[in-house]
Amino acid sequence: MDDLPHILVVDDDRRIRSLLQSFLAENGFRISVAASAQDAREQMRIMAFDLVVLDIMMPGETGLSLALSLRESGNSVPVLMLSALAEPSDRIAGLESGSDDYLAKPFEPRELLLRIRGLLRRQEQPPRGRTEVAFGPYVFHLQRGELRKGAEPVRLTSREREFLRTLAASAGTPVARGDLAPEASEDGARSVDVQINRLRQKIEDDPSNPVYLQTVRGAGYVLHAD
Question: Which of 3.50.50.60, 3.20.20.60, 3.10.560.10, 3.40.50.2300 is the CATH number of 6-124?
Fold first, then answer.
């Protein structure tokens, strides 16, 4: 059991917690549950999780607030948000808070399973080829997913890390939006743009006039390396 991926399910609905706990346990995961953001914080203080399934609409602190505070504190655990809010603007807000994926309720359990496995797979797979890519004062180590500006580490969410890893592995060559986020969704392109803008905030002196991470009209995005 200790070797199984450990997932924390955070939802104030006891029925959903129970259903997710049973379904995910049957599919090869170790599951802990939390009924609130406060409960989740307490558990994360004493245990490390491989992924968090997080409801947005909860009494007290919302899932959006919890995800944002995790990222601000440097915690890069993958976060999959669940919400009854299904508008594109709601999905964008979820991704902007630092989550790695967003699934609207009601959802197919098999789709949830596929998304969880996809997020965990991204954490596990090392890239091939070059090991480091330098651009300006930054160096990105592809296998470790570490970005440094000189000697200082730059904090990345797991989603930002995977985007940068894909771009760095193809440095100098445009990468299509579909290659950055292969999972299909109605507003997938907008979700990619949100992540790119967040990356630019971290690596560009002037994000509105990027030097390193540029848009290639009709082709996607390209990272210009040294």
Answer: 3.40.50.2300
